[in-house]
Amino acid sequence: MSLTKGIDDSDSSSDESDNEIDWASAYAVVAAIVHEHEQERTQEPAGPGRGIPGQRRMAKYTRDFKKSVFYQEHLTPFGIEESRDSSSRLGKLFRIRFRVPYSVFEELVALVKGSTWIAGKRKCGKHAQKLEKTGIYVLSSLRYMAKGFDFHDALASDFLCSGERLRTFYRFFIRLLNRSDVYDRYVHAPENEEQLQKCMKLYEEVGLPGCVASVDGVHVPWERCPTEYRSWFVGKSGFPTIAFNVAVSHSGNIMHVDGPHPGTRNDKTIVKCDKFVMDIKNGTKYADVPWTRFDDAGNVVQDQGLYTIADGGYHRWRCMQCPVKWSNSESTTLWSSWVESIRKDVECVFGRVKGRFRCLKIPSRLQSLEMVSKTFKACCVLHNWILEIYSTDVEDCEFLDGDEVLHIQRTHEDTIVARAQSNTNIQRHVDNTFDASGVGLFQMRLDLNDVVVEHEDSWSILRSRLISHFKYAFRQKLIRWVGC
């Protein structure tokens, strides 16, 4: 007897008692319904919403990286052949997308395959799968450095790979480029006589004999700076930054990178930690290197001990010559104006590096200070790597001569005369206790010894000699402007 039938019989027979209802059949029907729901629940695969009747799990989405646009255009046999040709459409598109030539990409893939990556972490897949995906992983890292996209959003969608795996590989890739055998190969100071003379030749042509490099500081914004460290990294920019002290040659080659430093530190404090500058200052590097100059009478005089050029925010050390902001001497003002123009080579390098690798220009989403620092140095490695491919010798540089240099000379002379007249009889009051380090007013003031400018007598002596050389060479039209 069914449950419905038993209930109907009980309703129609008001004389029958409750004991005549078939309760066993009713329980059997209820048990069958419960058993049916239990079977549906146990057959439902594990996932979000398990145990909730009627809720279905979302179908698993399997992504195939071979279907991505980047794989189809740059990693297939046809794409590889076309991307290798820098004049082809895919070759130019590869430079726009990843900011490096395809030859550099191939060398990076070979470098990764020869490292411990293939036999490394188990969660990244089998060896054959790793070998197949190495090109995609390297492209994703270059794409992040070129554009600064997010791993879990844009890059995961573009490359059809797990965003976490792309992020994990990026950490390995950056550490690989910062490895000593890779980093020291591309970012280094002149190591032999040929490299040193080639570096000094350009500065000698522009009127600065004995100069070896231009030095300046650069800041990289850091968005994910921990709150407890913001007082160290928020300087005059108003947001957290990481500072680096960089030395470059006049040809744009990065010779040395010192850092990271908190964004609140000024150049005077950072330079004391720079090994490259301190070695020149202490005489352990380039102290015995000879160079020649002109004196006031035009005689050739030999000197020794190289130096660098910088802006006015550094100490007055012999090894760091800087322009003079206030002077009544026409020759001194002319020399300062010229040095300020030559010193823009380091600023141009910063512009090229940040323009090529946008991850340095936009606020970094990397939370680790180590990764931000290694990312900047990895960008410097790739910058020098590209310069090595498209290197230009001093003999191949284009120099401005004749009317072009004469036009520059007249422009500078008119500017210098106007400055000299405006600076006459100007008395300036210098407050030695003023802290211009850029540290916020709400922070504790540092020791004045950390921000007071240090003066060396040899700095003024060398500056006078360089001004005498420049005055004679400029009048004799022996100075050329590098246009390469």
Report on this structure.
- It contains 19 helices and nine strands.
- With 484 residues, it is an alpha/beta fold.
- Strands 3-2-1-6-7 form a five-stranded mixed beta sheet, with helices on both faces.
- The relative contact order is 0.10.
Compact summary:
The protein is an alpha/beta fold and 484 residues long. Helices cover 48% and strands 10% of the residues.
- Tell the overall outline: elongated
The main sheet comes to: 5 strands, mixed
**SS field, number of helical segments:** 19
Strand order of the largest sheet: 3-2-1-6-7
Average pLDDT confidence is 79
Number of strands: 9
Question: How large, in whole angstroms, is the Cα Rg?
Answer: 35 Å
Helical percent range? 40-55%
The termini sit apart by 102 Å
SSE order in H/E notation?
HHHHHHHHHHHEHEEHHEEEEHHHEHHE
The proportion of strand residues reads 5-15%
Class derived from helix and strand content = alpha/beta
Point out poorly predicted stretches. Answer: 1-18, 44-62, 120-125, 402-410, 419-449
Q: Can you lay out the helices and strands and say which pair or pack?
A:
Layout: H1 3-12, H2 23-43, H3 69-74, H4 77-84, H5 89-98, H6 102-113, H7 127-147, H8 151-159, H9 163-177, H10 180-186, H11 193-205, E1 211-221, H12 230-233, E2 241-248, E3 254-262, H13 267-270, H14 275-282, E4 290-294, E5 300-304, E6 307-309, E7 320-321, H15 330-342, H16 344-356, H17 369-389, E8 399-400, H18 403-422, H19 457-475, E9 481-482
Parallel strand pairs: 1-6, 6-7
Antiparallel strand pairs: 1-2, 2-3, 4-5, 8-9
Helix pairs in contact: 4-5, 6-7, 7-9, 8-9, 9-17, 15-18, 15-19
